[in-house]
Amino acid sequence: MSSASRYTYLGPEGTFTEAALHTLPEAATRQLTPMVSVPAALDPVRNGEAQAAFVPIENSVEGGVTATLDELRGGSRLMIYREVLLPIAFALLVRPGTPLAEVKTVTGHPVAQPQVRNWLAAHLPDAVWESAASNADGARLVQEGRYDAAFAGEFAAATYGLEPLVTDIHDAENATTRFVLLGPPGRPAAPTGADKTSVVFWLRGDQPGALLEVLHEYASRGVNMMRIESRPTGEGIGQYCFQIDSEGHVQDRRVGDVLMGLRRSCRAVRFLGSYPRADRQPPTLRSGTADEDFVAAADWLSRCLDGRD
Amino acid sequence: MSSASRYTYLGPEGTFTEAALHTLPEAATRQLTPMVSVPAALDPVRNGEAQAAFVPIENSVEGGVTATLDELRGGSRLMIYREVLLPIAFALLVRPGTPLAEVKTVTGHPVAQPQVRNWLAAHLPDAVWESAASNADGARLVQEGRYDAAFAGEFAAATYGLEPLVTDIHDAENATTRFVLLGPPGRPAAPTGADKTSVVFWLRGDQPGALLEVLHEYASRGVNMMRIESRPTGEGIGQYCFQIDSEGHVQDRRVGDVLMGLRRSCRAVRFLGSYPRADRQPPTLRSGTADEDFVAAADWLSRCLDGRD
Amino acid sequence: MSSASRYTYLGPEGTFTEAALHTLPEAATRQLTPMVSVPAALDPVRNGEAQAAFVPIENSVEGGVTATLDELRGGSRLMIYREVLLPIAFALLVRPGTPLAEVKTVTGHPVAQPQVRNWLAAHLPDAVWESAASNADGARLVQEGRYDAAFAGEFAAATYGLEPLVTDIHDAENATTRFVLLGPPGRPAAPTGADKTSVVFWLRGDQPGALLEVLHEYASRGVNMMRIESRPTGEGIGQYCFQIDSEGHVQDRRVGDVLMGLRRSCRAVRFLGSYPRADRQPPTLRSGTADEDFVAAADWLSRCLDGRD
Amino acid sequence: MSSASRYTYLGPEGTFTEAALHTLPEAATRQLTPMVSVPAALDPVRNGEAQAAFVPIENSVEGGVTATLDELRGGSRLMIYREVLLPIAFALLVRPGTPLAEVKTVTGHPVAQPQVRNWLAAHLPDAVWESAASNADGARLVQEGRYDAAFAGEFAAATYGLEPLVTDIHDAENATTRFVLLGPPGRPAAPTGADKTSVVFWLRGDQPGALLEVLHEYASRGVNMMRIESRPTGEGIGQYCFQIDSEGHVQDRRVGDVLMGLRRSCRAVRFLGSYPRADRQPPTLRSGTADEDFVAAADWLSRCLDGRD
Predict the structure, then answer these.
(1) Searching chain A, which residue's CA lies closest to the CA of residue B222?
(2) Site Essential for prephenate dehydratase activity: which residues (chains A, B, C, D) (predicted)?
(3) Do A115 and A180 fall within a single domain?
(4) What is the DSSP-derived secondary structure letter of residue C160?
(5) What is the pTM of this model?
(6) Measured distance CA(A12)–CA(A135) in Å, rounded
(7) CB contact, 8 Å: A239 with chain D?
(8) C198 and chain D in contact, CB less than 8 A
(9) Do D113 and D252 fall into the same domain?
(10) d(CA B283, CA B274)
(11) Cβ contacts (< 8 Å) between A301 and chain B: which residues?
């Protein structure tokens, strides 16, 4: 099977990531290979051994997935081609027949812990929590008898011969994880009218107000920021780069104009792609920022240059 | 003589305007026609009966010359092709033989009055001031015996058979008037590396912060404003348009980018020309705003669009 | 009669200024003295010989009245205590019996000319215009037979034995002049809920973006600017100070906060008063900018300082 | 022993956190209790059973420590009273006598993994990594024979009967972790002239540009931001709060003014304390932002209100 038909993903099997990946129509026609970590999932993409990798990037409870964010800013450039939003609800998986009263030890991915903390305090106040490498791995450890129960997706129960004792557990309303499909640099997905554009940029030296200037590049073209994440550059405490997701597609003139402004005013900027919004919400355009306004302004400028008007 | 060889100017003869006009090399080869007012000087340009008009636009003591500013924002569009700065110092012109002690009445253009007010208070505290239609007209009225003395340029003495009793009178240090050569819309003067660009614009409706947004268009491209003047639109108290002179030439990418931003964010914008700065001071470019930075940013964007980088 | 009961105003009698002054209730109980110029009207106030002076400050057609603006920024500080808006419409005053066809020469204040220019072009295209020192002075010159007609307020006809041949002449719809009552520094008028606050300020040296910073002081507290006027400082071309009228009263916390910001960020700032808006329109407060929001924020800060919250 | 003399910290013993804690002079006189997680370390502080907790908050390679950040924004308010910076270098700990060639499995805290990734690729390309709950826990697991080697601080070797096979391992130059001492709300530490102030705030609803407005509150008072971190509010994807560390102390007028601005313009703001900067670098004050400038501005405003100046 050629690399063109292979997707890697953050494994193991039986996690929310795999469940999210299956919502992509093309997943049915790809070889799907679970990997042990985000870097491990991305290396084959960078080496040409896989077409794309599917990994979590952001969780509405835990925030950015730093492994993914850091792979996007470092190493060879990757681009985002798709995003998927998956509501997150946990099931408490036990070996068949285990009653709640006998659950003394519970496990799960560290990211799951804050999302079930209140539920644990209310229903299993004396249970001891230990982290597992993944939710699926936690399920496996329950299967092996190492823990009494694991928090995981209900869909993981069958794989590990467990049963869901309690379902739909989530401390926060609307807990959602965002996943992205990452591939090598290429032409962005075609605009759909409800798109998102992601970049990571490094501010110039010690320039005070440099971040303010970048945000103005967005604000002055009416391009709404949807997410801003600061990340250390690895050059020492207090050195940050920023990743911004905004509405719009790089083919939209207002977005392209923002990107050119960033390119000029920042030390460096990396284009991470334009791709359809999972929530399909179209943007609200501010007056003077539609493509035709940019075209009209460029036409007018060229008339000024030529001495017409 | 054809219209192409005729310049009008704000007359009458013998004023500072005429003196400034003669500093333009091409003035020697043009028919120079004094007119009674700024509108009267501009009408022949608009009608094709004169090539250009030379009028004052700003005085370092009195501020903007409203007649000129209002002609630039109203009527058919005109453009600025040249500017001239002339230091202003007055002479007190009298009929030959008049001693200072006998000067009881003085005249001059209303604009001259605040520039000689302190001198008058110190040397002729009892003299009565009456305004004349122009400094030259004041000289003529002295010639006719209607007033004892006139404030005017020393160069006006000969024309009216007067003598300069006192020279180099000016309350303010560095009193200077700026004049402009206005013509019909055409290709701007070639960039010299030390240029100025003028626009007038009308903000959108009641948008609060709209002026702030326009100033950001300049600031974000490091284009320094040299003058901002608010003018009523004539649509009622509280309705303004603004005229801004900035450094740079419309052919400079950073300036063109500002103008396109104005075109998009304002209700209307009128390009008034790019022309050599009279003071020949080149701009200080901020990092990321040189033409090559704009070109590099546009190249990069097109690589992003194509899937290269 | 003591100085406390005397108001000066820009004369002569029979002008729009006098008409506007009579709209102030207290005018009926004051001695009203016309003066030949704005400076002449203000000197007695500065010397303690008059309580206040009533002068025009802005015209919806012509813009700021520079004599008044310059007196506000120079000399000893004066404050604005009242404003009056007067719609401006001219009458064409002639000696009784003069038909329109016989009007060959017309006069009026230079400020009147652009406001009747279109009317003149339509109805008296061949009439010659000459400026007079004031509209009332123009009427007097018609009385003396020097001109055929004068543009002035209809109310001036009786004073000079003339008749209004045409009335309600004004090129622009809504032509309005704003007048102010200026007095020596003192406690501002009490807040009415619909007030205005005026300042003049000088930016720091060559700081680029300094004007932007000042406008942000207003914008960040949601204080709407109603007028911004740039004026030369008299220190040379390109040196400006700015006068801003904003909504709100200095006793409003958001306005006081803006003023303190200006005081800190500008080279100099002069408080020109808070006074009732002539149009009585109350401001629309932005969320977080009411007095109680400022009080709550100060209380919270003091709890933070004390270690409570 | 009373709660007043007890500090909790993120354990177990033998981690970098414990090493950093010992750099605080008062640590010598406190009972130091290791806890299994950040929440576990903070609960006793919130319950009054411990005086303070010492936890990592930021790593120059990994970024913010989300458990700590999330505890600061949620639950009852805590305040930062001290910060400590500790350079991070790992040792590879093995059972005495193990040669590098026999190391097939390695462990360590997940946060350690990206910091030793390059070293591993270069020196132990075939070794399998598995995460441990902490670096110290990894050392224990090596002691128990479960893994061949653990990455941990060199100081942990003795505790677990291991020997440091390789020392000073760190992929990034200047890898540093920042730790904070958290206590219940109280009076902030006294200003030292080189301080830091931390806040977390929630923007108002859907207001576009709301983050820009907050950054302006800092920029307009010349208060330099040192770190900005976006965190999900837990209310759904795209809902963020922000934590900002800036230079300055809440007792500095410019900082207090910023905080009041945040309080007014944000939906909510939580003051997290002012404390000495670990790097002891004093701020560079911008013109007009010193305490005396704020005092002078307040004095001037009160003179304006009183009618003096």
Answers:
(1) A265
(2) 177
(3) no
(4) T
(5) 0.87
(6) 9
(7) yes
(8) no
(9) no
(10) 14
(11) 250, 256, 259-260, 263
Q: Which two tokens stand for residue C186?
A: 């003192």
Other C-beta atoms closer than 10 Å to the C-beta of D236 total 15
* Helices (runs of H) and strands (runs of E) counted in chain A: 9, 15
Residue D150 forms beta bridges with which residues?
Answer: D93, D107
**Model pLDDT for residues B208-255, shown as the tens digit of each residue:** 578 888 988 998 898 988 888 888 887 777 778 899 999 999 999 999
Q: For chain D, how many helices (H) and strands (E)?
A: 9, 15
Report how far residue A240's alpha carbon sits from residue B55's, in angstroms, rounded to the nearest whole number: 54
Q: What's the rounded Cα separation, in Å, for the pair A270 and A78? A: 9
Same domain (yes/no): D214, D81: no
Range of the domain at B116: 90-169
Across the interface, of D70, D230, D236, the residue whose CB is closest to A230 is D230
pLDDT of C136 higher than 50 = yes
Higher pLDDT, C136 or C198: C198
Which pair of structure tokens corresponds to residue A291?
């493509």
Euclidean distance between CA atoms C276 and C183, whole angstroms:
15
Q: Where are the beta strands (DSSP E) in D113-247?
A: 128-131, 149-152, 163-169, 176-183, 195-202, 225-232, 240-247
Question: What residues in B contact C230, CB-CB < 8 Å?
Answer: 63, 227-230
Give me the percent of chain D exceeding a pLDDT of 90.
Answer: 66
Task: Determine whether the interchain pair D296/C263 forms a contact, defined as Cβ–Cβ distance below 8 Å.
Answer: yes
Task: Classify the C-alpha dihedral C96-C102-C104-C110 as positive or negative.
Answer: positive
Question: Which residue in C110, C161, A61, A142 sits closest to D240, CA to CA?
Answer: A61
Phi, psi of B4 (to 5 degrees): -65, -15
CA distance B295 to chain C (A): 25
Taking a C-beta distance cutoff of 8 angstroms, is the pair D186, C309 a contact? no
Domain assignment present for residue A140? The answer is yes
Domain count, chain A: 3
Question: Does one domain contain both D41 and D181?
Answer: yes
CB C259 within 8 Å of CB C211 = no
Q: What's the full length of chain C, in residues? A: 309
What is the DSSP track for C27-88? GGGSEEEEESSHHHHHHHHHHTS-SEEEEEEEETTTEE-HHHHHHHHSSS--EEEEEEEEE-
Residue in chain B nearest A272 by alpha carbon: B304
CB atoms within 10 A of CB D262: 22
C293 and C202 share one domain: yes
Which CATH number covers residue B128? 3.40.190.10
Highest averaged pLDDT of the listed ranges C41-55, C153-167, C172-186, C275-289: C41-55
Q: Is C196 found in the same domain as C282?
A: yes
- With H, G, I as helix, E, B as strand and everything else as coil, classify residue D110: coil
pLDDT per residue as tens digits for the range D14-72: 889 999 999 999 999 999 999 988 999 999 999 999 999 999 998 877 778 888 998 99
Buried-state track C271-306, b at ≥16 Cβ within 10 A, e below 16: bbbbbbbbeeeebebbebbbeebbeebeebbeebbe
D68 and D97 both lie in a single domain = no
Pair (D194, D253) in one structural domain: yes
CB contact under 8 A, B188 and A304: yes
CB B17 within 8 A of CB B59: no
Q: Give C31→chain D minimum CA distance, Å.
A: 25
Determine the 3-state secondary structure of D279 from DSSP. Answer: coil
Measured CA to CA, the distance from residue B37 to residue B67 in angstroms comes to 9
Spans of chain B, pLDDT less than 70: 1-4, 205-208, 309
Last residue of a domain, one of B151, B186, B221: B186
pLDDT of residue A1: 47
Nearest C-alpha neighbor of B147 from the set B112, B111, B115, B103? B103
Q: With CA atoms as reference, report the closest residue to C174 among A215, B239, D158, A309.
A: B239
Q: What are phi and psi of D187, to 5 degrees?
A: -65, 135
Nearest to C215 among B114, B215, B227 (CB): B215
